[in-house]
Write a structure and sequence with these properties.
mainly beta; 4-stranded antiparallel sheet; 21 strands; 2% helix
Length: 248
């Protein structure tokens, strides 16, 4: 399962991988604890139906402020030639209105190579401001997908540390406002199938040089606000304290 605000309405949506023939499901958050299956309307059902999904994660691959969905895929039984066993990972790009388009084949050879995919995690492994992926497959080495996109926007990222809240700040909500647009992300615990992604929260800022307002709602109920934080940096946000430069 992956959790992220796909359509920018400030509520967390859910993507769930499923068995071969069932497609990946996108549950749109209506608020009030209500969700609706929007897989078909968003183009995800047809694109993922003949895959067996395991790992899943939302990420902003090009820092444009819109989320993509990545999945690792592979069957649990070898029924070749009737059914495929190894399957390629998939990348679905968001258009900002909740629509997902399969851009895998145009995103490089790693997205076209079949694996018996299982775990998937995302994070900026080399701190170059672009999010990378790691995929663990059955009976083969891990696959490191280094993000080499040329035309990417600016970013800002945060490592959270709770004081009155739990130290890992699980349950915190961070909102970033720039140029009148507001993006929201949540510090969740764990990850998708047998995986844990980079705990830092990243936000694509497009062409913006700074975040006008950053708001952190901690699990304790405290709300911290920070203004005019420059883009292109990771910040360490400790509950109740000013922001500092982040270290790993």
């Amino acid at each position: 399962m992956a959790c992220g605000d796909l359509d920018g309405d400030g509520r967390p949506d859910l993507a769930v991988t499923n068995f071969y023939g069932e497609s990946t499901t996108l549950f749109h958050n209506l608020g009030g604890g209500l969700f609706v299956d929007q897989s078909a309307n968003l183009g995800l059902r047809a694109a993922s139906r003949f895959l067996l999904g395991f790992g899943a994660a939302f990420l902003d691959a090009d820092n444009d402020g819109r989320l993509e969905l990545a999945t690792a895929n592979g069957h649990v039984n070898d029924h070749r030639p009737a059914l495929p066993f190894a399957m390629p990972a998939r990348l679905y790009a968001g258009d900002g209105r909740g629509k997902l388009n399969d851009v895998s084949d145009a995103s490089g050879e790693p997205w076209r190579t079949p694996h018996i995919g299982r775990g998937l995690a995302v994070g900026d492994l080399d701190d170059d401001g672009k999010v990378d992926l790691l995929i663990v497959s059955q009976n083969e080495p891990a696959t490191y997908l280094h993000n080499e996109s040329a035309n990417v926007g600016r970013f800002i990222g945060f490592r959270l540390e709770g004081t009155k809240s739990n130290r890992d700040a699980v349950g915190a909500r961070v909102s970033v406002t720039e140029a009148g647009r507001r993006s929201t992300s949540w510090r969740t615990g764990g990850g998708s199938y047998l995986s844990a992604s980079d705990p830092r929260l990243r936000f694509g800022l497009g062409d913006a040089e700074k975040a006008d307002l950053v708001e952190v709602r901690w699990p304790s109920g405290r709300v911290d606000q920070f203004r005019d934080l420059r883009a292109g940096a990771y910040y360490h946000l400790r509950e109740g304290e000013p922001p500092a430069a982040a270290t790993r």
